[in-house]
From TrEMBL:
Annotated binding of Zn(2+), by residue: 563, 567, 675, 679
Higher taxonomy: Bacteria, Pseudomonadati, Pseudomonadota, Alphaproteobacteria, Hyphomicrobiales
Domain Alanyl-transfer RNA synthetases family profile: 2-718
UniProt similarity note: Belongs to the class-II aminoacyl-tRNA synthetase family.
Organism of provenance: Roseibium salinum
Gene: alaS
Name listed for the protein in its UniProt record: Alanine--tRNA ligase
Subcellular location(s) per record: Cytoplasm
Length: 885
């Protein structure tokens, strides 16, 4: 028997041998097509290659593409569990030619592969062609030798494939397999074509045109896009008639049987199939970055999860089931899709959390459902109010309620459900507009109401496409922004991070045909609306345009590093200082990180060094940075750090990194924090953490600033350069420089002291010979001097010495500084203080120096004056005063 994995690799190998580039599956959330909710065909990722907009280094490719058909245009959700071949998730095998080979070669490859390599009997195969496509019919006859009755011409759009309302398109030819007479159904085009006997396995699209808004134009070069359902092919190759009987599904269903203890038969069979199918779609969606939420893609995921969870409940599972099936899925598909392996923990945790949460209301909701429908019989209808209550209070998505009633043939009044939903929204709006917020905020609230929350793609990608949902300027919605104008743009989805949690908003550009828009900031408004501040540089921006969105990658890379480093510094601070360290604020920008935290005193040099080295130890571990979704209380219980007073939803992203090397946490996860920010993939991407400052912001709150990566390196380089400059000046090596500087400082201090002493001596007449000149002023001996270059604070000491020299008398010292200002000190020996006051004298001197006031005691006073050139006049004035006494 040929297993699914072998069938897939056989396909890819075949085309590789035939010069095709084997390209990885595009992500389930398309990056290049904003109108698609999920990837729904192999050609999605090549859309622009077909139209010539994008060039690739190859012109032939082959892929196994992950596809989800739930939500959006193609929605198979309701059929799963009830038909043999519907899935919410499946794999599409495809080969592509971008202007290389065309119809004949595509038919040759397909026929060769299925009949020679896979060995399908030719007599079980038939094909359809578009009625007008004579070429295709001729090739099938020539290449495959099919008789005319096995080449069915279909005139409808069934055989003209288009990607959507616009985009590449062309006639197609489908290959059908006949499962045999014992199965009901007729060939394509017949009345019984919906039966399971004739199953389409491969669709070859001859891409020839591009459908534009104006009409259909020729593609630059005719191309090929084919798609084969892997599960359907496996069904044929494994000789079964139901997709759920192939090896892959058997493994999943047997895991589900094992975990529930219920055999997959009778009524239970459908539930097991739903569970197996939904396990694949939910796991792959989570691995591609979708997380359950109440809007957009996240809500589709939640609907699928909860639908499966009800079936687990139907099977009587006493404990959450889905997460226990993940290892089996990873074993079956992880090799082909390593992203599934990488995200295994995230997938498991997310499924478990959702199931624990949902089980809390599931039982009661089902009770309500039972009582509300007790009186209904087949053909009856559940009222919309109850369906809405189930949705609003018990978390039952509408389709889950419908699914639950399907077996009893009871429908739901969806119009009534929608009306109840609208009423609730109107109430919310009324309650909100009463809150009196600013006019601009009102715009965002209204836009959020109208367009829903923006789908954020930025955890996974920095480039994507998005459709302009609305434009605003100042405080109102506008119809356009022209070149040179600035305003705000809201899109259906965006890779731009909206400022929050301390992390600054992204910048970058938005591009369209003849349109260039610069994004200068991105902010989050009205709970989930991403508002881009923009300047239109070229062209005209209007709602409805699909734009290429490009986050400034270098800037974002630096932001990621700084954000992850903030977590490491936070944990290192707790390790070094203690668990009283709690975050008080943070700023994560591309240039640096700033972290405020509670701590009563400045950090010692040694503490800072240890914090820095602990953070860098984790950088060197190059440990993967893991993100999970958890319930808040569960996360906090697990030790995740949360910001006190911060509003968190019921579920939170928890970011963990590194393994602790020392302390109580040794060998456990190093950093675990609730965080909605963007982070590096591995701690090594941070490069290096350097603390550059530590200081106080408020009582008991310290602030640390740090740099990472190239900023840190540039900083250290400049420090190093300065160090070398210093060493150069000192004419010594960098090693000896600090000791040399300390020595110089000490020498200088000594020299200053010596210089001051020398000056004093000089001022007072120098070297002890004779001392300063003494005059007679009235009855007083007066020693008065102008002393230059003496520090004013030394004057008093000098005056004291002069008093000793005089024995009895008056001392006046005036020092004039370089800026011309004067300081004056007057002193009187104790025996004379009843005759004259030093304070009176200093006032007279100060006045002469152009100053005013001065003060002190009767025996010693001091003052200043702006005009040092009047020093002699000041002395003369004092002398005259003394003479007059
Ligand atoms: N695009 C086509 C399809 O989805 C063939 O790959 O069927």
């Amino acid at each position: 028997m040929t297993g699914v994995n072998e069938i897939r690799s056989t396909f890819l190998d075949y085309f590789k041998k035939n010069d095709h580039e084997v390209v990885e599956s595009g992500p389930l959330v398309p990056r290049n097509d904003p109108t698609l909710m999920f990837a729904n065909a192999g050609m999605n990722q090549f859309k622009n290659v077909f139209t010539g907009l994008e060039k690739r280094p190859y012109s032939r490719a082959a892929t196994a593409q992950k596809v989800v058909r739930a939500g959006g245009k193609h929605n198979d959700l309701d059929n799963v569990g009830y038909t043999a071949r519907h899935h919410t998730f499946f794999e599409m095998l495809g080969n592509f030619s971008f202007g290389d080979y065309f119809k004949d070669r595509a038919i040759e490859f397909a026929w060769d592969l299925i009949t020679k390599v896979y060995g399908l009997p030719a007599d079980r195969l038939l094909v359809t062609v578009y009625a007008e496509d004579t070429d295709a019919a001729v090739y099938w006859k020539k290449i495959a030798g099919l008789s005319d009755d096995r080449i069915i011409r279909i005139p409808t759009s069934d055989n003209f494939w288009s990607m959507g309302d616009t985009g590449p398109c062309g006639p197609c030819s489908e290959i059908f397999y006949d499962h045999g007479e014992h199965i009901w159904g007729g060939p394509p085009g017949s009345a019984e074509e919906d039966g399971d006997r004739f199953v389409e396995i491969w669709n070859l699209v001859f891409m020839q045109y591009e459908q534009t808004g104006e009409g259909r134009i020729d593609l630059p070069r005719p191309s090929i896009d084919t798609g084969m359902g892997l599960e359907r092919l496996a069904t044929v190759l494994q000789g079964v008639h139901n997709n759920y009987d192939i090896d892959l599904f058997k493994a999943l269903i047997s895991a589900s049987e094992h975990e529930t203890g219920v055999d997959a038969e009778g009524d239970a069979l459908g539930s097991h199939r739903v569970i197996a199918d939904h396990l694949r779609s939910t796991s792959f969606l989570i691995a591609d970055g979708v997380l359950p939420s109440n809007e957009g893609r996240g809500y589709v995921l939640r609907r699928i999860m909860r639908r499966a969870m009800r079936h687990a409940h139907l099977l009587g599972a006493a404990e959450p089931l889905m997460h226990r099936l993940v290892p089996t899925l990873v074993r079956e598909m992880g090799r082909a899709y390593p992203e599934l392996q990488r995200a295994e923990d995230l997938v498991r945790d997310t499924l478990k959390l959702e199931e624990i949460r949902f089980r809390k209301t599931l039982e009661r909701g089902l009770g309500l459902l039972d009582s509300a429908t007790a009186d209904l019989s087949a053909g009856g209808q559940l009222d919309g109010e109850t369906a809405f209550k189930l949705y609003d209070t018990y978390g039952f998505p509408l389709d889950l309620t419908q699914d639950a009633l399907r077996a009893r043939d009871i429908s739901v009044d969806t119009a009534g459900f929608n009306a109840a939903m609208q009423r609730q929204k109107a109430e919310a709006r009324a309650a909100w507009s009463g809150s009196g917020s600013a006019a601009t905020e009102a715009v965002w609230f209204a836009l959020k109401e109208k367009h829903g929350a923006t789908d954020f793609l930025g955890y996974e990608t920095e480039t994507a496409e998005g459709v302009v949902a609305a434009i605003a300027a100042e405080d109102k919605e506008v119809a356009k922004l022209s070149a040179g104008e600035s305003g705000y743009v809201v899109l259906n989805q965006t890779p731009f991070y909206g400022e929050s949690g301390g992390q600054v908003g992204d910048t970058g550009e938005m591009l369209g045909t003849d349109l260039r828009v610069r994004v200068t900031n991105t902010q989050k408004k009205a709970e989930g609306l991403f508002v881009h501040s923009v300047v239109v540089e070229e062209g005209e921006l209007v709602p409805g345009l699909a734009l290429e969105l490009k986050v400034d990658r270098a800037r974002r890379t630096a932001i990621r590093a700084n954000h992850s480093a903030t977590h490491l510094v936070h944990e290192a601070l707790r390790e070094v200082l203690g668990s009283h360290v709690v975050q008080k604020g943070s700023l994560v920008s591309p240039e640096r990180l700033r972290f405020d935290f509670a701590h009563p005193k400045p950090l010692a040099e040694e503490e800072l060094e240890t914090v820095e080295s602990y953070a860098n130890e984790i950088v060197l571990q190059n440990a993967p940075v893991e993100t999970r979704l958890m319930a808040v209380d569960e996360a906090i219980e697990a030790g995740a750090m949360a910001l006190f007073g911060e509003k968190y939803g019921d579920e939170v992203r928890v970011v963990s990194m590194g393994t602790a090397l020392h302390g109580d946490k040794a060998d456990k996860t190093y950093s675990l924090e609730l965080c909605g920010g963007t982070h590096v993939r591995r701690t090594g991407d941070i490069g290096l953490v350097t603390l550059v400052s530590e200081g106080a912001v408020a009582a008991g709150v310290r602030r640390i600033e740090a740099l990472t990566g190239s900023e840190a390196r540039a900083y250290l380089e400049s420090q190093d350069r300065r160090m070398r400059e210093i060493a150069g000046i000192l004419k010594t090596g960098a090693e000896e420089a600090p000791a040399r500087v300390a020595q110089l400082v000490e020498e200088r201090r000594k020299l200053e002291r010596e210089l001051a002493d020398a000056r004093k001596k000089l001022a007072m007449g120098g070297g002890g010979e004779g001392g300063a000149p003494v005059k007679e002023a009235g009855v007083f001996k007066l020693m008065a001097r102008k002393v230059d270059g003496i520090n004013p604070k030394d004057l008093k000491g000098m005056a004291d010495e002069a008093k000793v020299q005089l024995g009895s008398g008056v001392v006046v010292l005036i020092s004039v500084a370089e800026d011309g200002k004067a300081a004056i000190v007057t002193a009187i020996t104790q025996d004379l203080t009843d005759k004259v006051s030093a304070v009176d004298l200093v006032r007279i001197g100060s006045e002469a120096l152009g100053g005013r006031g001065g003060g002190g005691r009767p025996d010693m006073a001091q003052a200043g004056g702006p005009d040092g050139s009047k020093a002699d006049a000041a002395i003369a004035a004092i002398e005259a005063h003394l003479a007059g006494l």
